[in-house]
Amino acid sequence: MKLPETSNLVTKILVVLVTAILMVYFYPHHRSDRFNYEEGKPWAYAKLIAPFDIPKRPDSVTVERLRDSLDRYFVPIYSMNENLVDTINSRLPKSPGTNHRDKLAAALRKVYSKGVVDMRTKAKIDSGILPKVRILEGNVLSEISTAALSSPRDAYMYVDSIMRDPDLHRYFAAANLQNLLLPNFTVDEIENSRNYQYDFITLTAGRGVIVQGEAIVDKAQRVTPEIYTYLKTYEEMLADRDTSDRASRILQILGQFLYVALLLSCVTLYLFFFAPEIYNNFRAFFFIYVLLATFFIVAMGLNYWETGGIYIAPMMIVPILLLVFFDGTTAMIVSFVLSLVCAGVTPSALEYVYLQFCATCAAVYSLRELSRRAQLLRTSFFVAAAYLCAYVAVETMMNGSVDSLSWRMVAMLAVNSALTSMAYIIMSAVERAFGFISVVTLVELADINNPLLSRLSNECPGTFQHSIAVSNLASDAASRIDANVQLVRAGALYHDIGKLTNPAFFTENQHGVNPHDALPPERSAAIVTAHVPDGIKLAQKAGLPLVIQDFIKEHHGAGMAKYFYITWCRNHPGEEPDKALFSYPGPNPRSRETSVLMMADAVEAASRSLQEHTREAITDLVNKIIDGQIADGLHNQSTLTFSDVAKIKEAFIKRLMTIYHSRIAYPKSPAPASN
């Protein structure tokens, strides 16, 4: 369908460029990011050759084993406080006239000469966990047995046991040693950490080198823990080189931009040459690129969040929306381009593009005759079946067996298919945001049980019958010129709803009394032309889509209520009439569909006044009305061609001949025979 908004070339180029820049921004920019692999799974790429020497570091299992071993056998380092015992002795109370202080000080020096440690260390010693420690004295590190080490409590108990003289013991008790005794061997956290890291690095140092030109991993080879470590080392070194090589990184980003921009340009060229109704409608053009950017970003986000998460992204929503609002060819082309854009970050580009292509075909096929929203749910099952068949096909082709099938991949594709049903919700949101209208919505609007149509049927039965007749006439003509038949049918049913405001002032609703007879022509014209703005108000109140409102606005265009205009001229000979008083507010039709409605509306109304309904009379009527509208310039903004007009005329003539065909006169029953 063609909407009235257009945009110049510069704006469209900006849309394409912004979309390309946004996609490149979310592209992985390090060369290492292009690989997506899992430990224990086959390598999905071609043979990977080392571009530089890579150290062979131990794998994660070995590293953990070495770490456990280091934790068990690492001898902790303690620093020795040589001045601590002198500090404690200086705090002992004086003992005038006795040598109690000297005796206690000597006992403490004896205990501290063997070493005093904290309670936690002593507990480890007692449990046998810590048979040895290393003591740092200055710059000298020596290893000693922990058998002679004691805790502050042990030191207190020992000194208490040797203070046998009552006077000496009383002095000992008054010295309050329990608050003075501290460890002189304390854990040296800094040295412990430094030595631990050194020992760990020594244990886990590279055990050889993958020489430049040597294979890191072969195609389809299982990624063992050892190979997984080699790949991680390769990626770390590659990232470091990318960071230091600014020129290489810039060239990579430029290459990504060129890749994406060329693909998006293909979409633009397709729209320009093969879908001009979309290209010339800026809202439709903009929507396609918003759709591309949005689902690409969603795919990149899922891929960042989960390994292989790009396979979860419900990409089939894109062709579904494009098919619902535009056509199947556009859906296929745009979806294929999106698959190629995303393929740049997938483990296997061929597999990804193949899966998306098969699923897109299934989605488009399942919706070729969309008429109910429930069909969108059915599409999810078609998509799931297509994904599964395509995945089995590509895996068996590449690996020669079904053993390589991954249940994880099957689960991701199943989630993808389930999320496709979200198109039901997104479709309604797009209709409101962009002013589009789907076939499903048109079918729902064309239901005569719709509240507005039901009201029209009850309050304006003549107008309702006229609207149905116009709908049939216009939809028949629309099908001849490949216009949107469903849109024309729905628009025709609502085009005259403004007559609900003053039903009796319109001929089809009158029954012998014409209220215009008591009014001046200009007043009558104002009432009649007002059914257009009145209809817009009712449509807005009922929440009718903008494209349906266009039918209400444009079905008379900027034409005139000629009957009242001519009547005024006859009543005011020699005076210049104000044409604005007799003109409809417009605008003139701006699409093929609204042009067809204008023609059908005038032809159907005029056909009711024909005295005879021969082909010649109907043909003359159709030609006179349509040619008159064209001569008045009412269809200048439409995209109808002369060939279209000829097809429309023929469709009207054929339909009217069918409606007004003459019936066979049935013979009268013979009179009964007299006896």
How would you describe this structure to a colleague?
- The protein is 60% helix and 4% strand.
- The protein has 675 residues and is mainly alpha-helical.
- Strands 5-4-3-6 form a 4-stranded mixed beta sheet.
- A hairpin with a 2-residue loop joins strand 4 and strand 5.
How helical, in percent, are the residues? Answer: 55-70%
Helix and strand content put the structural class at mainly alpha
Q: What strand line-up does the widest sheet have?
A: 5-4-3-6
What's the overall geometry? elongated
Count, helices = 29
Quote the average pLDDT: 87
Gist of the model:
The chain is mainly alpha-helical and 675 residues long. The chain is built from 29 helices and eight strands. The N terminus is likely disordered.
